[in-house]
C-alpha cells in the first residue's frame, strides 16, 4: 500500500466520538491533551481540547481557545 | 472538476506525507503518490499516466489504485468549495437554537472591564494612545448597576462549562477599583447561589496594588490571579513604567514575594510575560524558571505589534492596528520605540530558543520539555501542540469551517459603559459592539461581526480551513474592513496558511522520532492557560449556501 494513515494525532481519536458519557461528573472528566481534571485551566489555548471520562474512557469533547 | 484538498510535504528524515484537509488526518505516502497526487482527480487517469510516464506505468497505476481505495475509507474526498453564507442554526448540547437565541442564552466567559484607569504607562500598551483604532486610558469606572446587570444576564444564560460561570476582571488596572471588584464578586456569588450555579473568578493585574488585604480576598475566592511581569528588572522596567518613567519592577516583585510568603501553597496564580526587544532570553529564561514553582501558570508572548509585521525589515514596524500608515505616524507623532524594532540578534535568540524547544519536545516530549524549559514552553507550547490538537474526523461528509471564536459566546466583554464587545482585545470599532447591558445582545450586530470574516478571503478553498487561528482581534480597524477589501486580510490568511504548513512538517518530524511526544500526564503538568476556556466555534459549509454551527460536543 502506497498510502497509509499515520495516526499522528491525539490518541483519543481512535475512540467513538458518539460515546460521550454524559453522566460523568466534572471530577471524572479529564482533558485528553493535558490530562488535567479541571478543564477550566486546561492548557489547550488556541486549540481544540477533548475531554474524556477517566472511568469509561469515553469522550467528552470540548473546544477551548 | 472537484478534487481533494490537501497539503503534501516532506520531512527532514526523507519521508513524504499528505495532510488531508477534509479529515485532518496525516497520510504517509510513497514517492509515486507524492508525485501524482497534484493531478489526481484534476486530470484523467490516462492523462496522469502520460504526464508521469517516467515513473513507470505499473507504479503509477498502483498509486492510482491505492488513491481510489483509500477514498473508500473517507480519505481524500473531493472538495467542493462553498460560498460562505449566513449562519442560521446552532447546535449545542444536542439542542438546536436559532443563532440569535443561542447568542442571547449563553456565553462561556464574562469579562468585566471595571475601569479604563491605569497607574502604569507601559510603552507598548495598546491603550497608550499610540495605536490607531484603540481606546485610550481614561478615568472611567464601571457603574455598579452596569456590572450587576452584566453579571445577572451572564448567570441567566445557559450553563456552558459544567455549570461553572467564569468571570474575569479587566482594566485598565482592575485593582485600582478593588472595592468595586469586591462588590462584583460578592454580588456574583450571591446571585449564582440563588440560581444554584457556581462562579469562578480570575483577574489580570499589573501587580502594583497587591496589598495583603487584596491577596487575602483573591485567595479567599480562589481567584486565578495573573500578574504581568516581563522578566527580571532590566527587561520589565524597560517598558512597564509609571507615568513619571520609573520602572515598576521593584514594587511588583516586593508584592509578589509577600503574596508567596503569605500563601506559599496557593498555586492558582501565574505570570503573563510580554517579550519585547531587545531580548536577553537566557536571562529571562533563568528568571522564569526561578518563578515557576510559585507561579506555575505562566504564559509568554511576543509584544503585540501584529505578528504579520513582526519581522519585517522596515524601520517603522506597523502594529496590528494598522499603525504604520496612520495619521499619527505620518505626522511624526508616533515615537519609534524599541519595542517595535526586532534586531537580528533578537531574531537569532528567538530562533535558537525555538530550535532548542523543538529538539527538547522531540526528545523528552511535551511534559519533559515543560520540566526542562518552562520559559520556552510558555512561549511556544500552544504553537508546537497546535497540530496535535487539531480536529480530526473519521469521515468528511461535509466540509467544516472553524473559527477561533464565536462572537458574544466565546467571550463576552462588557466595557465600562456597559457595551458588550467581542472581547477585550479587539479594537474600538463600532462594528465590534454586540449590544449593551440594558438591551442585551443584538443578534444582527453579532451576525455582522461574523460576516467580517468574509473579508478574509477564500475560506472555502483554504488548506488551513480546520486550523484557522485568525481571531477577531487580528482584524484591524474593522469598521474600515467592512467597507471592502483590505490587503492585510489576505496577508494574514497567507501567513496563517504558511505557518500551518510549516507546523505540519515540524509536528510530523517530532512524531517520526517520538510518537508519544505529545502525551501529557497530570503529574507532569506544568502550565495551564491563563484564560478560562471557551469552546471554539465550528461552522460547516453546506451545499445549500447555508452555514450551520455544529455541536461543540462532536467532531
Can you walk me through this structure?
The complex is a heterodimer of chains A (65) and B (555). Chain A is 0% helix and 26% strand. Chain A is mainly beta and 65 residues long. Chain A is globular. The C terminus of chain A is likely disordered. Chain B is 34% helix and 17% strand. Chain B is built from 16 helices and 20 strands. The longest helix of chain B has 29 residues. At the A-B interface, strand 1 and strand 4 of A face strand 4, helix 3, helix 13 and helix 16 of B. Strand 1 of chain A pairs antiparallel with strand 4 of chain B, so a sheet runs across the interface.
Helix and strand arrangement:
The complex is a heterodimer of chains A (65) and B (555).
Chain A: E1 3-5, E2 29-31, E3 48-53, E4 59-63
Antiparallel strand pairs in A: 2-3, 3-4
Chain B: E1 3-4, E2 6-10, E3 16-20, E4 26-29, H1 31-36, H2 45-51, H3 57-71, E5 78-79, E6 87-92, E7 95-98, H4 99-105, E8 110-113, H5 144-156, E9 164-170, H6 178-194, E10 198-205, H7 212-220, E11 224-228, H8 233-239, H9 249-262, E12 269-275, H10 281-291, E13 297-302, H11 327-330, H12 344-372, H13 374-385, E14 399-403, E15 412-414, E16 419-421, E17 433-436, E18 440-441, H14 443-451, H15 478-481, H16 487-513, E19 537-542, E20 546-549
Helix pairs in contact in B: 4-14, 5-6, 12-13, 12-16
Offer a concise description of the structure.
The complex is a heterodimer of chains A (65) and B (555). Chain A is built from no helices and 4 strands.
